[in-house]
């Protein structure tokens, strides 16, 4: 409260400036609101490890903040009972009201979206600008093409050519659609961020495609996790993205135990970044805990941007402030993008924005205290990070819907 009084202009910007949430996922349908354990709100852990989540500082903080939102006791069971008692539309509205999220950019590639979630247009009503655009997850597109090929009776020797011809056509078609503003790769989850910039041999790719087709026909399941094949998909995506002038987001850093942490460091992408200088690359999730490496890449490569999301509310308040500071150590402030990584539950959006705004206020206030920034400069950083950088990068052509100054 003292900082708000001391730096009123900065506080107003941090707490009210409209947000373009540049990386999010779909919310559950009302009928599916209890499909996943609510403890996933503050962790990427699953299975037995998820039960320990309630003992993290990040979780305890989230529970207290939601208790204030729902006017209930701050213990976790009370919070869950309070949300369960609410009408679902009212729950969503309460979580979004006052957050001033003007636009959502939705990656609809999470497993379960088709069965459990609302699609992008449904989310428009929750934003102040009525805007919900789509990010295409390329591995999901590739997976569906492989299934189609597997079900058809094509000659085995032509499968790889068929696959990549179809993939290129689909990606170009997506790139031409105005409701699709970018692509995303989860190579980090599948084979790691050390994507090779050089082409793989035709024989290796042919054998990979044949293996995927045979596996699908035998088991009915398919997961694309072949190093050379995945790398080829990424390189094709980067080329097409440059042609249609749309960014490519990469999952980096923080994720579930399907990730090999040593392969999640964006520093591994340096050869790839150099090989595609005309493609705009977005490093997602603060690259946490590799935020310093991500900041370095944004500083020395014109085509690299850093999203600082998912750490809200997955990381403690101190951890969030530390990550924001490390981001600002090197990252040009015209290349910082904010996101909530909201998914499944509306509370992920609420906590993401609430904590993200507070972290920015705390960190930038410290810079002003030390006379390293003026208040005007700090306000400009906020406005760029929350809105203008994403508006320009994704070519959204939006005007910020401003909140009136508090009196």
Automatic annotation (TrEMBL):
It comes from Exidia glandulosa HHB12029. PANTHER family: AMIDOHYDROLASE 2 FAMILY PROTEIN, NODULIN 6. InterPro entries: Amidohydro-rel (IPR006680), Metal_Hydrolase (IPR032466). SUPFAM superfamilies: Metallo-dependent hydrolases (SSF51556). Pfam families: Amidohydro_2. It comes from the Eukaryota. This is Amidohydrolase-related domain-containing protein. Residues 235-396 form the Amidohydrolase-related domain. Coiled coil: none annotated. GO terms for molecular function: hydrolase activity.
